[in-house]
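Archive entry. Fields below.
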Amino acid sequence: MIMTVHVQEDLFDLQDITQQLKKLHNSGASVTFEGYVRDFDPGHERLDFLELEHYPGMTEKALLSIESLARNRWYLDDVYIVHRYGKLNVGEPIVGVVVFAKHRKEAFEACHFIIDFLKTDAPFWKKEITNQQSYWVDAKKIDDEEKNKWN
Amino acid sequence: MKIKLFYFAKVREVLGIDREEIDVETDIKTLAELIAFLKLRGSQWQSIFDMSSSYRMAVNQELVEASHTINANDEVAFFPPITGG
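PREDICTED_STRUCTURE:
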């Protein structure tokens, strides 16, 4: 099986991607997760935009390894993972995950698993820029807890 | 032995460097020993490496712990806890 992940500066259209992938499989279900740039973070100024840094090379490896873990754990027809980097405006998508499977349970669980692992294992860092200042976003303890639930 | 070092995000900004290649004594066998060596460079380096909660490590693009062994030509990276997604 050939797995590919998509790490890009450009916008993506997850609905279109899902429709294209649906044609390739005789799946019974798909589950989609899409994450967007929020316009606020508690205790901070209103956000102007986000800068997302990553570790080229390791990012792709980490995402492929997460996809592989999911495919070993559930029987899946297809997995699509896309993550952006660079300058991202409020409201734009940051990350997309689409999972196709024969049944809803596998699709729901695998999609949830992939986004939880991506949050702690894929080397991306967010910097928030407001009209006053810029600051690196702190990692959240809950992200580790959510991932560890899968063990 | 020669190793490549990469720094990302806040770690890169605090240290003022994004990458370097260094030649370390072969008695440095683990990441923990490499970190002790890097801390001798000054207060900025200590500020990053004094708190284990403020950084994470990868060797050859895989997340690892400080006890991980390093070898010649390894690619070692230091960066803050991950905040993608």
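CURATOR_NOTE: The radius of gyration of chain B is 12 Å.
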